[in-house]
């Protein structure tokens, strides 16, 4: 007689409202990280390419730098990780440094362009 496997416990899915609230908290945390050489946060600079949130609130982030040889290249992912860790209820955080597509000033928000007098 074979024992039947217990069904795996389902991960509860977030409602659209919960996801929106959680995403707003993630964005706020990302906006607390500044490129040390530019007085604008990395979110408004367009350095965050992708943020994926799993139902268990694990978060994967793809980010880049204004230039591959940026002197804070090794520090930026850690700064992003530390900022995201302040979000209540967050799961595992993975920060990936990517360089495709290359960052250009076109990725900056209007807020960033105004801050840097680029209009």
Give a structural overview.
By secondary structure, this protein is an alpha+beta fold. The chain has a single domain (16-110), classed as Fe-S cluster assembly (FSCA) (GMP Synthetase, Chain A, domain 3, 2-Layer Sandwich), CATH 3.30.300. 29% of the residues lie in helices and 13% in strands. It has a 3-stranded mixed sheet. Helix 3 links the parallel strand 2 and strand 3 (93-97). The longest helix is centred in the first third of the chain and has 15 residues, at 16-30. The termini are far apart.
The CATH architecture name reads 2-Layer Sandwich
The percentage of residues in β strands lies in 5-15%
Residues in helix, %: 25-40%
Uncertain runs are none
Order of helices and strands: HHEEHEH
Structural class: alpha+beta
């Amino acid at each position: 007689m074979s024992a039947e496997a217990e069904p795996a416990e389902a991960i509860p899915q977030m409602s659209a409202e919960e996801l929106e609230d959680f995403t707003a908290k993630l964005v706020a945390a990302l906006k607390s990280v500044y490129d040390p050489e530019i007085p604008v946060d990395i979110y408004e600079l367009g350095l965050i390419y992708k943020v994926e949130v799993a139902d268990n609130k694990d978060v994967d982030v793809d980010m880049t730098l204004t230039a591959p040889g940026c002197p804070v290249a090794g520090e930026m992912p850690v700064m992003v990780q530390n900022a995201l860790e302040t979000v209540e209820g967050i799961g595992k955080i993975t920060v990936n440094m990517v360089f495709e597509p290359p960052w250009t000033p076109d990725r900056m928000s209007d807020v960033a362009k105004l801050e840097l007098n680029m209009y």
